Amino acid sequence: CIRDRVSTQSTGPSQKMSISSQITPPSGVYRNTNLQEVHWGPGCLSIVLEDSIKKLGKSKALILTGKTLATKTDVITKVQRALGSAYGATFHEIGEHAPVSQIRKAIEMIQKVKADVIVAVGGGSPIDSAKAICYFMHEQDKGNDHPDSFIPSIAIPTTLSLAETTQVAGFTNEERQKVAVVHPALVPRIVIHDAELTLLTPERLWLSTGIRALDHAIEFLYRFDTHPLLRHQALGSIRELFTFLPISMKNPNDINVRQRLQLAAFTSLWPECRTGALGLSHSFGHKLGATYGIPHGITSCLMLAKVVQYTAQSKNTPIEQLSALADTLSFIPHPYNSSPSPLGPAVGSSNQLDIVKLRKDGELVGQAIEKLVSDLGLHSTLKSEGVTHDQLDVIASRMTGEDKKGTEQWNDFKNILESVYDQ
């Protein structure tokens, strides 16, 4: 960590802020998940899926997906065919934000057909639903905490939202609030990235979930418990997302680009046993998504740039996290970074930091995100997404707690919401 002391040095008409830092060796822990294998490559589904079922020691799969994939594309037919004799049934009623009522119906079907493995196909909703099912079925059976006592899942993503690397299962309760259950055994055991299955994903969904992946990577860099071990995974992901998302928009059938985007999304949030929202943009997304019917990809398009700019200027952002955010600018290519420069010294290598420059570079990262969102045709506002102005106070209070209404933090969050309401 870096312990910081802020001092001001007079530089004529303006003041330059500098940081005198005492650098200490980093310390921490990385905890792996129960993920066993990741497969990627166009057409790999038909090669690896049936064998993956056998590797898990299972014999009958329930496919969990949404209605659009099941009824308007041939994706689920391909998955059924790839399962061969292991195919049991398909449940295709999983809706956006994973409503708990549909999760309960899926559990009933699993029990009816006696499936012993779930194959989740689609975006974050079916993959999160599969994890929630694993949790609730385990609670019903009152098994022990060993991973083998949970029904396992295999994730086959068709978007870039990336629910497949975490131990958190988010779903919508009866009050239309986004809630979650957490357990290390919920992580899918096998992930299959087959870009051919993404070709029919609607463009807005594909590109906006790419911004969601960018949200993962950037917020990982300044989350309160971030650590250096995975920092370079996130930075590499940022570079590739800024590079390949515009290319994918111009050439939507380019399998090479789509496959690389799937891998970039995966590395935006490398598998680890962690809990809690990544950062402020994710927290806003959780408050906006299910309650107001806004897809999480779009919540990231709405909030990420403004949150990054706020974080860059906030006095509460620790120096190491601010340095990591500023360092991101070097990994953003032209034209989103108007003056790309060679990489500077690594974060944590210097005990003299220019805080004004760090904040400015962080601001430029936010501006680069705004341009990318705009270039992808994804600019939106809370108003255009159906949120009425009177709800801004409600959302800010949900972020801070009702007891903190009117505090400095509450006002900061309200101002962020105002900045994306109708602009």
Write the layout of secondary structure elements.
Layout: E1 2-11, E2 14-23, E3 37-40, H1 45-55, E4 61-64, H2 67-72, H3 75-83, E5 87-91, H4 100-113, E6 117-122, H5 124-141, E7 153-157, E8 168-172, E9 178-182, E10 190-193, H6 203-222, H7 231-250, H8 255-268, H9 280-292, H10 296-313, H11 319-327, E11 352-354, H12 355-375, H13 391-400, H14 408-419
Parallel strand pairs: 3-10, 4-5, 4-6, 6-7, 7-10
Antiparallel strand pairs: 1-2, 2-11, 8-9
Helix pairs in contact: 1-3, 4-5, 6-7, 6-8, 6-10, 7-8, 9-10, 10-12, 11-12, 13-14
What is shown here, in short?
By secondary structure, the chain is of the alpha/beta class.
Provide the helix percentage: 40-55%
Largest sheet: 6 strands, parallel
Residue share in β-strands:
5-15%
E-strand count: 11
Overall pLDDT level: 91
* H/E element sequence: EEEHEHHEHEHEEEEHHHHHHEHHH
Q: Please work out how many helical segments DSSP would assign.
A: 14
Question: In angstroms, what is the radius of gyration?
Answer: 22 Å
* Spatial ordering of strands, largest sheet: 3-10-7-6-4-5
**Class based on secondary structure composition and strand pairing:** alpha/beta
Low-confidence stretches: 1-16
Distance between the termini: 38 Å
- Shape assignment: globular
